[in-house]
Amino acid sequence: MIRTVGLGKSFGQPVLRGLDLVVPKGTLYGLIGPGASGKSVVLKLLAGLVRPDVGQIFIEGQDTTKMGELALQKVRAGIGFQFQNNALFDYLNVGDNIAFPLRRLTSAGADEIRQRVAERLARVSLPGFEPRMPGGLSGGQRKRVGIARATITQSPLVLFDEPAAGLDPVTSRKIFDLIRDEQRATGATAVVVSSDLDNLLATVDRVGMILRGALVFDGTPDEARAATSPAVRQFVHGLTEGPL
Amino acid sequence: MSTDARASLPRAPLGADADAHATPPSDGGEGGEQAPPAAKPRGILASIGRTGLDGLGGVRDLYSIFVRTLYYVFRGRRAKGALAEQMYAIGNKSLFFVTFTMGCIGMIMVYQATMQTKKVVPELSLVGASYMQLVVRDFAASIGAMMLATRVGAGIAAEIGSMVVTEQVDALRMCAADPVDYLVVPRFLASLVMTVALLVWAGVVMFSTGMLTGYVVYDIELATFANPVMVNAGDVVVGLAKCVAYGAAIPIVSAHSGLTTFGGSEGVGWATTRAVVNSSLAVIVLNFFISTAGLMAFPPVK
Question: What ipTM goes with this model?
């Protein structure tokens, strides 16, 4: 389970102001909110890539805010992260990019790694892409490689930052299906930040909305659609009239 | 992460929490009333204090990277071929640049120095011996290192800085790869070896072109010029110590600039500039300390 208590973070201007979030174990959780509301910052805080100014983060009962960098490395070993800009290593080919976490975090042999990379690539509909360089891929292909890398170690916690940003509707739908299938297959806890609300709400088990640095809604997608809070209703239904 | 929050550029300390130290918004808001005159000195003092604290933070971060680099030199996990790749990038690819610039500088130095010497003493037989001592003890290492700081330092900062802004460094950290271990250590080791080799070569080139200049312009015999009478073991030790120190300092200072990059491509530009300026400063400061220590330990032959 993931729990944050009174999480605060500022980059000159406050971004998060006392965020309390609970993601039950094995849940596919969607995080929504207007642009620059701090959704991606939450993911980076959960991964220990950024430290909070105030508050606590509990991952499986461990307070990661009190950990040093070495202890955090161990926590991160159990987290898969798909970055908003994919963050593929541009000097490695697709196969080596996907194999990178396996080589660093496991003792898998070369054959096993090759096999698992091929399986991952087939899973994201990019079979045989191992020798290609990231620079030669389209936006959607890069996204899928990023997802393959984030999920190859089958971590108990996977964080997806805008997995469908900039993709066409069909590819976007496929990406969300893939995320859901993966999560169902592994039973992992997954947090997905996305602005593609239609696909997100059709995919996740629960959804939370961040507004002005705090969680203003937490519930099921149906509850989100039926929310009476003006801000949540406006955002979920994409209305132009409202407090946002 | 929103890049808007990072829009104000100059610098942030290194580490997991680099983002937390983004430059705060300036006090003078747009369209607001003018600050009373009495507030000005306080603003200047605050600015000086902030600059001082930033400087201290930078030194602490540099020290932290250096210590972690030394730790990972012995305890780190090196990717296959990474060291050879960096040695090629730092050493082989700098060879022409170093040879050309140091050759030119050697010619100019001997031409100018001999012209000045002739005004004072007509006898030029010790010009070569004196020049050799200067090249061995200081010039080859220090001038060569300044040249390398521009090429190698900028390259390291740009490479690491662009990895930072594209979140590749965060991706490394998610795979239990400490950026210092994965990115800095291969560059540090490669620079240590290749800088020493390049600077020794720079000395040879510098002296040779100087010798040719002396022969062609001032009729100084080659054998007279290549006179090692003024060079002793102390000069060689001091010269080599400088080569090693510069070889260690340039990648550390440049990697620090790269790792503290933020703000997109503009930030990478800033990081590259900072790397060149700070590496050159590091060379000058190290030169001062090593030269002073060298003068005390090995006084030059008079």
Answer: 0.90
